[in-house]
Amino acid sequence: MEEIPVKVAIRIRPLLCKEVLHNHQACVRVIPNTQQIIIGRDRIFTFDFVFGKNSTQDEVYNTCIKPLVLSLIEGYNATVFAYGQTGSGKTYTIGGGHVASVVEGQKGIIPRAIQEIFQNISGKPSIDFNIKVSYIEVYKEDLRDLLELETSVKDLHIREDEKGNTELP
């Protein structure tokens, strides 16, 4: 089977106002000029990309996601996976703020990727494109497609076809 390259990025969100009011302290720090973080006093971890608390949506998208989107246009598959505990910033990074009121700089990965995909394919009218999108939430080992209203009652399973492609039948 062919090796699939996986890159891992970490984004550290700033403390929320209520956390600052309760005198909470940040427990994750970026080691300057490296792709490493420190958790607690001495636990060091290395990633492909590290974004500190002052990172922007633009910076995260252009560094990690834009290359994937451009490879999609060339016919490759791509997956973006956001993982973290409740309140860690996944929804903000993936989607941005409230959809109806998101200013350009706060747009997350999804609105930026959609815009980029359609801008690219509109410039290639001689090519037929077939776009399939899933927005899957994994919560307590249950899968739910957030773009499909009926999936709260439907059983979703991740499968691999005979060619080794991952699919949601």
TrEMBL record:
The keyword Nucleotide-binding applies. GO terms for biological process: microtubule-based movement; mitotic spindle organization; spindle elongation. ATP binds at G84, Q85, T86, G87, S88, G89, K90, T91. GO terms for cellular component: microtubule associated complex. It is found in: Cytoplasm, Cytoskeleton. It comes from the Eukaryota. It holds the Pfam family Kinesin. Transmembrane segments: none annotated. Signal peptide: none annotated. One of its GO terms (molecular function) is microtubule binding. InterPro entries: Kinesin-like_fam (IPR027640), Kinesin_motor_dom (IPR001752), Kinesin_motor_dom_sf (IPR036961), P-loop_NTPase (IPR027417). Belongs to the TRAFAC class myosin-kinesin ATPase superfamily. Kinesin family. This is Kinesin family member 27. It comes from Bos mutus grunniens (Wild yak). The gene is KIF27.
